[in-house]
Amino acid sequence: MIQKKLEVIYKPFDKATRVPPGTTLFSAAHWIGLPIDSTCGGRGTCGKCKVQVLEGGAEITTADRKQLRAAELEEGWRLSCQAKVYEDTTVTVPELLRVPKAATMGVNRLVLLDPNVRKVFVELAEPSLTDQRSDTERLRDALTAEGFDMKVELRVLRTLPSVLRDAEFKVTAVLGGDRLIAVEPGDTREESYGVAMDLGTTTVVGTLMNLKTGMAEAVRSTLNGQAPFGADVISRISHGMQGDEAKTELRDAVLRTINTILSELYESAGVGRDRVYELVIVGNATMLHLLLGIDATPISMMPFTPAFTDPLYVPALDAGIDIHAGGYVQTLPVVGAYVGADIVAGIMATGLAREDKMRVFVDVGTNGEIVLGSLKRVLCTAAPAGPAFEGSQIRCGMRATEGAIEGVTLTDHVELQVIGGDIAPRGICGSGLVDTVAQLRLAGLLDAGGKMRSREEAPEHPLSDRLIMVDGVRAFLLAENVYLTQRDVRELQFGKGSIATGIKVLMDVMGVRATDLDEVLLGGSFGSYLNPESAKIIGLVPAVDVDHILSVGNTAGEGAKMALLSFRERQVAFELPDKVEYVELSGRSDFNDSFVSVLQFPELETVQ
Amino acid sequence: MIQKKLEVIYKPFDKATRVPPGTTLFSAAHWIGLPIDSTCGGRGTCGKCKVQVLEGGAEITTADRKQLRAAELEEGWRLSCQAKVYEDTTVTVPELLRVPKAATMGVNRLVLLDPNVRKVFVELAEPSLTDQRSDTERLRDALTAEGFDMKVELRVLRTLPSVLRDAEFKVTAVLGGDRLIAVEPGDTREESYGVAMDLGTTTVVGTLMNLKTGMAEAVRSTLNGQAPFGADVISRISHGMQGDEAKTELRDAVLRTINTILSELYESAGVGRDRVYELVIVGNATMLHLLLGIDATPISMMPFTPAFTDPLYVPALDAGIDIHAGGYVQTLPVVGAYVGADIVAGIMATGLAREDKMRVFVDVGTNGEIVLGSLKRVLCTAAPAGPAFEGSQIRCGMRATEGAIEGVTLTDHVELQVIGGDIAPRGICGSGLVDTVAQLRLAGLLDAGGKMRSREEAPEHPLSDRLIMVDGVRAFLLAENVYLTQRDVRELQFGKGSIATGIKVLMDVMGVRATDLDEVLLGGSFGSYLNPESAKIIGLVPAVDVDHILSVGNTAGEGAKMALLSFRERQVAFELPDKVEYVELSGRSDFNDSFVSVLQFPELETVQ
Asked: Taking a contact as any Cβ pair under 8 Å apart, which residues of chain A between 271 and 300 contact chain B?
């Protein structure tokens, strides 16, 4: 999996990079911030991205023959988007994209605006007895002249003759890659939209993106309508195993959720559904299976195999998703049954596989997905963390909504941060739970084994009156009717122990220690809200300097946006599963050994 | 359009051929009867077709890099199916396909059995914790090992997990090209079928082909259900112009016809619909448009432009055609609005564009489509012949069904050949009409200008009592209540004059004379039944030796079968429209000039 890197030098800039064999000269340049000019975005059809190979070699491709003259080929000119590097290479780049539109997304990632959906306005010559080309050829020829390829589909063909003639042959072609999604009368280039969707087991977030400007026009999030069928993926799959009707029920539920979000997005931004051509969706493998009506049963059983891991580009109509009737749904690839497209999006958004820094990225949830590495090598795994971080199975646990305690500080009194501001707390959400446990450790009310002190054991402690008994179990009172029990602590120990073990196994496989880590990134809808210091104190993450533990937000959604706005980034995402090594924890003896050792909380001197 | 040919020599056979630049070494060998071994049929995925380039060159392709070792590339080995010829080349072929299955089809054309639909039986390793590949990857890896590529679609994915597990991972993959049409439990390789369909304006003929043996299992033909909406393409299109409902009516009518034929084929051959994976359909441009629900209006109006000419590969479900739910409908390409896929199939079936002989191929009907040429150059056109040849607009005309006079000989009495044998004739069909006119010419009862003699003008003629008057118009009595009128002769003169002019224009453009023609081929459901001598006497075809005027049968249907049974032949068909030059007759001054001159019948001494 690890290949010898090759050096590529770009003249006249003298910029150099090292890439795996088979990388194109175009991609390699893009990654080091040299945006080579291109209309077609690297599909080999516009001919603008040509470079001259000075040293090294690149075979002549069919696209080269089409776009370049024989004399140019002779002089070493090649289309950089087709030229794959198989030896150290030096090239001259004649022209960079002058004003690349770019946006900073994810974790400081610069993304060039180059969506897979393109709109091309053409004024076609009208047919005559000396020019009897078919409507398809006429349109294709015009698009080819502009550097675009086109595959026509039946749905568009059916009305193409009348659309062309009613519009007097002045039309805008809408392309999704090379598929002709629509032909619209007149010039509609200003109106081009797509949706990035993060399909979480619990929460679904959709962002309507303007593909012309790269800006978000509207955002909506709501609970996944499958929630009544179970809180986690296993219970959802179990429901589906009751039969075809149950499978349909699951699919319909999530489609209702998505389509409701879509109609709200359209309403809120004042954008018509017919101007929304693509939806990029990420989620764990189970969510993607259930969405597309694909049997997910084997994901839930040993040895945990999904039906597919590849990215799918599915007609929106087939998927049942309410965007343009000719539009497409793009799923990002998944690595395996428990490292899904949300994590692939996270790797994109954090740039983890493209930078030199050694980083660990953790998406904390019912399953803790963990990615460790740098551009040299990337490992990943999934650790079953149980429901503690989502706030369920916790006596006073609740989701992170109004009334939830999300932050806790213990001094000689209790300071609470409650979602919704100055209101009476109703329960504890995941981040509040982690804070409480960490603060109890710091306050000396919880030992390294996880045992809570009783009021009798700490009579002098300023918070001793908070140490109560609930149904015969020790507990710590946070607010009226809201407390943390000894059992809750055990649940958290199990959860954090599982994730910490996963991290440890990956670090062992990679051969790195905590001191080798440049950064720890906490992501996911829950992880982002964790207090880094608390995460460290409870031993959820390795003992690095707390400044190097970063919340990175909804990386899944960010990755989906990047893939929506940039064809290149999407290609990078497609290749990630081959670059990422999955480490299966089930059945690993070192997992079980480690697990026992990390159930404990770290000694305080090691984490402060 | 005409390119310099390059020489390719195949060692150790010392067989040589001359091909256009860009032809693959594999195709060129196939065309001269050297079937190079291949599992994947020339898709670049099996690696079996490698040849060693001794002289000339072939660039290294991505497929070469995948399939061949570096040392082999160094020694000049290339995949012949990927290696395109751009200079004179000599290669060594290590291995020919030992027992190529082949069938003679069309006009003496040897077709190697290599259908686009392939079935591959695989026994997959069951998933385990050390092998967690997705179901898709598992299947793809097994197919890749056998030399096949595969693209998976949502419909198959939905049930893939349960199909694999229920069948204990022993399944048959059904591929249409690289699309995964189905995954079937167990080994079903023996059951693989497709349908070749000739969608005529008047008649629709379907043949159920066994893709394993290459044999026809059943044939059915019936009238096109669109007949009530008009006899010819123009009236059908006019009906459709009444609105969307009328368009739907037309589409539904032909779909009913096709699906009825299909169910009869299945019934008759005892073959399940779920074992029929592909339907190759040919027809004129209008028929294909109406079948697929594509607006055909511009075909009927100057300047006569179709919506598409490309071959389409459409999911059978989208097209509404009752084969396997994952199956595909393949249309062959059309050359233009009035030279359709039926003619492209005819060019395939006759081999007109692949042989040295100079030939003219005429499909006689309401439109006479004409193709002239050889492997060096091919011209085609369409001549509006009017309804005479189909038997309509003729006083006693009828279709070629029971009771129709289909053959006539005049001596001192009248000899009739009637469809259905020894029954009373009810009318005249096209071939009977042509025979009658030719025989009247020979009998001296019709002059070169087309004027019929009256009983008064030929009182001594043994057939003079057959010369009658009907409603004040001269006529020739063939049988009780069945006669040919002077007006009928005029109709035929118009029809044959139009076709003869078309032929003449093409011969002028090509620069050939009648003596240069090696053969005249009469095709189509009507042309095949024409008496070659009569066709010559009335001047429908050029004055060549009558032995060189051949009926070639239903070439459209034959071409469809060839494309169904052979992926290579299909590729050849796809390329035909680029190789065939269309000559538009409308607005051509020489067409109008010629037309007047060929309305006359030829002098008898020139045609006997």
From this structure: 292-298
